[in-house]
Specification:
single chain, about 450 residues, alpha/beta, TIM Barrel, 2 domains, eight-stranded parallel sheet, 13 strands, about 45% helix, globular, binds 2-acetamido-2-deoxy-beta-D-glucopyranose, secreted, mannan endo-1,4-beta-mannosidase activity, EC 3.2.1.78, signal, Glyco_hydro_5
Amino acid sequence: MEIFRVRIISFIFLLILTETLCSNAFGGSMKNEEDLKEGQNDIVNSISNYGEMKEDEWEMVQKRGNQFVVNEQPFYVNGFNTYWLMVFAADESTKGKVTDVFKQASSMGLTVCRTWAFNDGQWRALQKSPSVYDENVFKALDFVVSEAKKYKIRLILSLSNNWEAYGGKAQYVKWGKEAGLHNLTSDDDFFSHPTLRTYYKAHTVLNRVNTFTNITYKEDPTIFAWELMNEPRCNSDPSGDKLQDWIQEMAFHVKKIDPKHLVEVGLEGFYGPSTPQRVQFNPNTYAQQVGTDFIRNHLVLGIDFASVHMYADSWISQQISDTHIPFVKSWMEAHIEDAEKHLNMPVLLTEFGVSSKDPGYNSSYRDTLISTVYNTILNSTRKGGSGAGSLLWQVFPDGTDNMDDGYGIVFSKFTSTSSIVSLQSNRMKLFNSLCSSKCNWSCKKKNVLEKTLYHDEL
Ligand SMILES: *[C@@H]1O[C@H](CO)[C@@H](O)[C@H](O)[C@H]1NC(C)=O
Ligand SMILES: *[C@@H]1O[C@H](CO)[C@@H](O)[C@H](O)[C@H]1NC(C)=O
Ligand SMILES: *[C@@H]1O[C@H](CO)[C@@H](O)[C@H](O)[C@H]1NC(C)=O
Ligand SMILES: *[C@@H]1O[C@H](CO)[C@@H](O)[C@H](O)[C@H]1NC(C)=O
Ligand SMILES: *[C@@H]1O[C@H](CO)[C@@H](O)[C@H](O)[C@H]1NC(C)=O
């Protein structure tokens, strides 16, 4: 009861504060610096209560124009990737790590996690063969979803892989051969062969009823979005037609089963043949020949938002160099601009990172990289732009170092990285809580908010 009263009071306070910000946006006078600083403290205090207030409402994330919204508030994202959650949850001895990663991420203020909802034909497979599931592994995925909700983290669930890890398109082709399909010549037949398309469409994660919560996945607001595939590429058809056709069919298929959730493709974001004037932003000339096409692929009916990945070390040169930083900025800004001008949708940087195994690597370089990404997002956020957020690749809980391929971030080990991450989370939270459609999204243009977003001690 006590808590309830505090919530009401802080809610009223927040309303007044919001009204003030909104009315200031229409010609109110600027506060001086001192007032600003005091205001910031109030704002920070009120956000924490504000988050509590909404505790009982766990609504679907939706798209409005070029923004994500939840409960009439914008939902700008600071999040992370941990791909192996389902596989770890499938074994009692490692299950606790799933809880650990959500707990640690949530303490950093992260609100979205991207993870694999597939494991085809491999060790601890979810799908042992087409449409044949290991119930124990499915229960493990149920656990991941139910645990995410406990920590107020939403999930982007990817449905298949371009790469061979966890099966991927190569496994589908293998299954096709085992079933006697004789005209399969390349792993890209995954995209075009009618039988393999049927296999993909039969992967029934969407209709799964969670054994922990009894909520059907397609009804569960814990799921932020479905991703058709991790990093689809179709090198066998550089025109892009083959992949485009697959995206069209699968986006429609997923939306037909589940109209409530958002859908994204899972692309890395390379510009392709439909936009010769944009290929200059690609990290290399090879990128335009892998059968993907950022603008065209995202104009498909049923695709709600755009995805981009960012790996200067694997795309430009493995040797770490400060010259990668301007690429990071221009790569992101080009996609944000396209999402605003041509796609009218949000764009999420769904993977970005750098490997500690790269020659020339040091942790302050990684912090610079992360800060550059965060500030580029923030510059879009404060204008209410399409830059909807970013997901670190990749966050590991303590004691999983054996999984680290160099990209892993363990928050307890890197305190400077942790404070950069948590500062960004606070800024996103502040923006999300103070701006609403009630004031026509206009408080985001307000000077007070703008200054607060750039105040480093938040
Ligand atoms: C392979 O065979 C299927 C029918 O089994 C057909 O629909 C498809 O077009 C064939 N693909 C190629 C590349 O010949
Ligand atoms: C789920 O449904 C079963 C069977 O109806 C019921 O026994 C169980 O208590 C329910 N669990 C939850 C978390 O609602
Ligand atoms: C870390 O690496 C960057 C990029 O090569 C370099 O500019 C910087 O001086 C290095 N910092 C330290 C502390 O070694
Ligand atoms: C963000 O915008 C500010 C103010 O316009 C500018 O100084 C800064 O360089 C920008 N940062 C990035 C990373 O784009
Ligand atoms: C908000 O937008 C609506 C419709 O665009 C407009 O009628 C209304 O006057 C706006 N309100 C403010 C406070 O600007």
